[in-house]
Each structure stands twice: as structure tokens, then as C-alpha cells.
Specification:
Elements: H1 24-38, H2 54-60, E1 69-85, E2 89-95, E3 106-112, H3 113-116, H4 118-127, E4 133-142, E5 148-159, H5 174-179, H6 181-187, H7 189-211, E6 215-216, E7 222-223, E8 235-238, E9 243-247, H8 252-260, E10 265-273, E11 285-294, H9 298-316, E12 320-323, E13 326-329, E14 335-338, H10 339-347, H11 357-366, H12 377-388, E15 397-402, E16 420-427, E17 430-437, H13 442-457, H14 468-475, E18 481-487, H15 488-496, H16 500-503
Parallel strand pairs: 3-5, 6-10, 14-15
Antiparallel strand pairs: 1-2, 1-4, 2-3, 4-5, 7-9, 8-9, 10-11, 11-18, 12-13, 15-16, 16-17, 17-18
Helix pairs in contact: 6-7, 7-9, 7-15, 10-12, 11-12
InterPro entries: Aa-tRNA-synt_II, aa-tRNA-synth_II, aa-tRNA-synth_II/BPL/LPL, Lys-tRNA-ligase_II, Lys-tRNA-ligase_II_N, Lys-tRNA-synth_II_C, NA-bd_OB-fold, NA-bd_OB_tRNA
Keywords: Aminoacyl-tRNA synthetase, ATP-binding, Cytoplasm, Ligase, Magnesium, Metal-binding, Nucleotide-binding, Protein biosynthesis
Protein name: Lysine--tRNA ligase
């Protein structure tokens, strides 16, 4: 079914079944269910015979020649994804669920009048539909066309599907396919492959970090103070304490508390939530990796993210990624590009931390970059760089030497007070991750968070709040450290050339 066009029947939302005009196929399937119950047969038994997985049958009897039969009896089970009923011989294809090593094995079963008898064959034809789960017991054979099969001597219904599977002859609706991912997974191998690809990437990330002696921990999702990033949070209320809370927008501040406490190499793979826009690269809930490394800095943490990404590429089989913009070579040089010189080269005019705001506004106008009149010079520089330079950075590039407002939690540059030690990793014109030498001076950190809280009080919904407990932790003393954050969804998008709604199995969607 790979590449087939699929149409997904869409249920009517927010309607009780009793008042809905039931489609004909659903009505017929419900009547079959009722008939089974009336005859004293269970349409949803608690268990059915199953001695072998479909994959195990394919592996164990792969040697059979065309037309060869065995006396080996097995019981197999799976979902019916193809069915062809003729007079005395019926064929069906069963499909089992995906695993780490494959996207869902299929196996043919055959029911003949001579093997199962007239009554059982008639029941099969009358009761079994596409989408049903069945158990089939019989001998393993190779058909006259060379198809490995189970020739049934008995069968039993395992679960009656009341909705038909998507059909393969109408145009695929991306919206419906994402809304009904369960149906998408049944009929499209590409959807199942995406699940396995994402699992392989996250498994590789953990293996890389464990190999380097990092400890995985979990931090709170519900937080009293939102911080660790500049983003608009989701608000909620905790009845037990009668207090307002937010869903976390980052993992950073609690992971740093762990480093203060002595967990010197720590990470978390966790869901975070930002109440912002939704498009092909942004989702309000997504998965982040954050890593903190005591005795490290922006360079050591950059080496770590490079190792993480190349190891993930190895897990998928190649360090070369084909994209519409060209082939990304992860084995090539990972460049380092300073923000101000990079922007200067693009606009063919020297831009420095001391360039006037009037000059930057004029540049934005000349290059048709939309800006907010309230933005300061540093924000204008970052916006110009993001619009004019980043899209052309196809090969892996660490963009570094940012102005301070870019990362309020990053350390001041060791040799230039107008900069901070921070980078963004750009691959394929998209930001994949960010990292920096962490700010551990509690006095400077208090000043920066105070400025953020004042901006929040003035109406900036993305500004961080003053987190007194985090500052208290820093006052206990934190070792020098490097830290990184990487969006897992963005990484999967890089390797698959898919949008974020494809990489997230069940993305948040606008209600119908």
C-alpha cells in the first residue's frame, strides 16, 4: 500500500450514535456484531489461539518452494487488510503491528471448503470484513503462486471492526489522515516507518548520552514560575493549593538545580508546552532534549550535539541527507559563523554591536524584512540574521557570538562584553538546537531575570519571571558548565524531510 492514495471516512464529531445517520457499512457491521451475540458467539473474545507471530512464520518457513506443503500447524492472528472470497477458496492477508525491526509483517491465509467445511467457510464469507482481527489455525504451505500461506483448518474472530478501513482509490486528505492517525498507521507503511524512525533516533540519543556517563532525570511539568526560555506559557490552576501555575516552557532551570546538587552530567528528554503559533515547523507541545555538562562550555557542548546527531544518522543508515535544497553532509565540516560578521557579509556592509538602530531599520527596509518599531538594536540584528542568512545555511553551521538579549541565561563572552557565549546550530536552513556556556554568577543572573520580569510586567508575554528558588540554587555555587537544547521533532524533520505534524504521532489539532 506504500504510496497508495487513501480516503479516510471521518466520524461525525460530538454526536451520540443514536442521533447520527449511520453510514451503510457501519450499519451492516453493527448488525453482524449483533448477530454474533444472538448466536452466542463473542465478537470480542478475551483471547484467541496464537502460537506464532506472522514474522516468525515468514522467518521459519521462508525456504518453502512454490507449491510445497508441510504438516506444521500454527495459529496466527492479525488484522485483515485484504480479502478475496471466491466459491470454494477464500484468500485474506493478515497484518500484525509494527515492531522495532519492521513496519508490520503481512501473511496470506487461505480457507478452502475441503479444509474448514461448508459451515465455517460460509461464516467466514458472511462475518469477516476488512479491518477485523482474526485468528487462523492451519498448516504452513507455499501456494501454487509461491506465496507463503497458512491453509486454515479453523478460524475465529478476534475483534470485529465497526468502521471500514480507509479505501485506496480516493485522494488522501492530509488533515483527516493526521486526525485519524490510528487509521493512517493501519494502511500506510510510511506512517509506520515514521514511528520506527523517531523511536530509533530517541533510542540513539539516550545511548550516546549514557555512553558518555550522563544521568537521565525528570523535572516538573507543572511549575509555579515559568522560565528557561522566552516563550508564552499555558496557564492553569492547582485547586489543591489554590494557586495559579503554568506548564513548563523549558527544562533548563530544574536541570541546573540538579547540577548544583552534584549531578554533573544530566539530561532530560521531555515534553514542553508553548502557547504560541502553529505551522509546519511549530507545535504548541513538542519534545526537547536538554543536556548540562559540568566543567564544559559552548565548545564542548557543541562537540556533544555533533556526536548525538551523527550517531542518530548512523542508527538510520546514512550521514548524507537528501533535501530539496541539496544533500546535507554530516561527515563534512561543521562550520562556525559569528552573527555580526555573517550578517555583514550578507548585506555587504559592516554591522557591529555598535551599529545604530537607524542603520539597522534602514537595512530591514531595504531587504524587505518586517520589523517591530519597538525592537531594539540587538533584536533587529537577530531578526535580520534569521531572515537573510539562516535560510542559506544548508550544511551544519554553529552560528555564535550573539548579542546578550538573545539568551538571558548565557554567560557573558570571555573577551567581548558586547556578546555572549552562545550558538544556534543551523542545518538545512533550520535551527536544530542551541547551546551556550552557562551563566553561573547569581548576581548577573538576578540582574538579567529582573530585567525579564520587568519586561513581563510591561506586557511582554514571552519574558521570563524572576525565579527566586533558582537564584538561591545558584547562590549555593554552581560549577562552570555547558548546556544545550535540541528539538527532537526538528531533528526527525531533518532526517525525514517531513513536517512537524508527521513527526509527532498525535499532534494537537484545531477542533472540528
Amino acid at each position: 500500500m506504500v504510496g497508495a492514495r487513501v480516503h479516510y471516512p471521518c466520524p461525525v464529531p460530538n454526536q451520540p450514535p443514536a442521533v447520527v445517520d449511520v453510514p451503510e457499512q457501519i450499519r451492516v457491521r453493527r448488525e453482524k456484531r449483533a448477530g454474533l451475540l444472538a448466536a452466542g458467539r463473542e465478537p470480542y473474545p478475551v483471547s484467541v489461539p496464537r502460537t506464532h507471530a506472522l514474522r516468525a512464520v515468514r522467518e521459519q518457513w521462508a525456504h518453502l518452494e512454490t507449491g510445497e506443503e508441510t504438516s506444521d500447524v500454527v495459529s496466527v492472528a492479525g488484522r485483515v487488510v485484504f480479502i478475496r472470497n471466491t466459491g470454494k477458496l477464500c484468500f485474506a492477508t493478515l497484518q500484525e503491528g509494527l515492531s522495532q525491526s519492521d513496519s508490520g509483517t503481512r501473511l496470506q491465509v487461505m480457507l478452502s471448503l475441503a479444509e474448514v467445511g461448508a459451515e465455517s467457510l460460509a461464516d467466514w464469507k458472511a462475518e469477516v470484513d476488512l479491518g477485523d482481527f482474526v485468528s487462523v489455525t492451519g498448516r504452513v504451505i507455499s501456494s501454487r503462486r509461491g506465496e507463503l500461506s497458512v491453509l486454515a483448518s479453523d478460524w475465529v474472530l478476534a475483534s470485529k471492526a465497526l468502521r471500514p478501513l480507509p479505501t485506496l482509490h480516493n485522494e488522501l486528505s492530509d488533515e483527516t489522515r493526521v486526525r485519524q492517525r490510528y487509521a493512517d498507521l493501519v494502511v500506510r507503511e510510511a506512517a509506520r516507518d515514521m514511528v520506527r524512525t523517531r523511536a530509533a533516533i530517541t533510542r540513539s540519543i539516550r545511548e550516546t548520552l549514557h555512553r558518555d556517563d550522563y544521568v537521565e532525570i525528570e523535572t516538573p511539568v507543572l511549575q509555579l514560575v515559568h522560565g528557561g526560555a522566552q516563550a508564552r506559557p499555558f496557564h492553569t490552576h492547582l485547586n489543591a493549593f489554590d494557586t495559579d501555575m503554568t506548564l513548563r516552557i523549558a527544562l533548563e532551570l530544574f536541570l541546573k538545580r540538579a547540577v548544583v546538587g552534584g549531578v554533573e552530567r544530566v539530561y532530560e528528554l521531555g515534553r514542553i508546552f508553548r502557547n504560541e503559533g502553529i505551522d509546519s515547523t511549530h507545535s504548541p507541545e513538542f519534545t526537547m532534549l536538554e543536556v548540562y555538562q559540568a566543567w564544559g562550555d559552548q565548545r564542548t557542548i557543541a562537540a556533544l550535539i555533533q556526536q548525538i546527531i551523527t550517531d542518530a544518522a548512523d542508527a538510520l543508515g546514512s550521514r548524507q541527507i537528501s533535501t530539496p535544497a541539496g544533500v546535507i553532509d554530516l561527515d563534512g565540516e561543521w562550520a562556525w559563523l559569528p552573527v555580526y560578521p555573517g550578517l555583514s557579509a550578507r548585506v555587504e556592509e559592516e554591522i557591529t554591536p555598535r551599529t545604530s538602530i537607524e542603520t539597522l531599520r534602514a537595512l530591514a527596509k531595504r531587504h524587505e524584512v518586517e520589523v517591530d518599531p519597538a525592537w531594539g538594536a540587538e533584536k533587529l540584528v537577530m531578526e535580520l540574521f534569521g531572515e537573510l542568512v539562516e535560510p542559506d545555511l544548508i550544511q551544519p553551521t554553529f552560528v555564535y557570538d550573539y548579542p546578550p538579549s538573545a539568551q538571558p541565561l548565557a554567560r557573558p563572552h570571555r573577551s567581548d562584553p558586547d556578546l555572549i557565549e552562545a550558538w544556534d546550530l543551523i542545518i538545512g536552513g533550520e535551527e536544530i538546537g542551541t547551546g551556550f556556556s552557562e551563566l553561573i554568577d547569581p548576581v548577573i543572573q538576578r540582574d538579567r531575570l529582573t530585567a525579564q520580569s520587568l519586561a513581563a510586567a510591561a506586557g511582554d508575554e514571552e519574558a521570563m519571571q524572576l525565579d527566586e528558588d533558582f537564584l538561591a540554587a545558584l547562590e549555593f555555587g554552581a560549577p562552570p558548565m555547558g548546556g544545550l537544547g535540541m528539538g527532537i521533532d526538528r531533528l526527525v524533520m531533518l532526517f525525514t524531510n517531513a513536517g512537524i505534524r508527521e513527526t509527532i504521532l498525535f499532534p494537537l489539532l484545531k477542533p472540528l
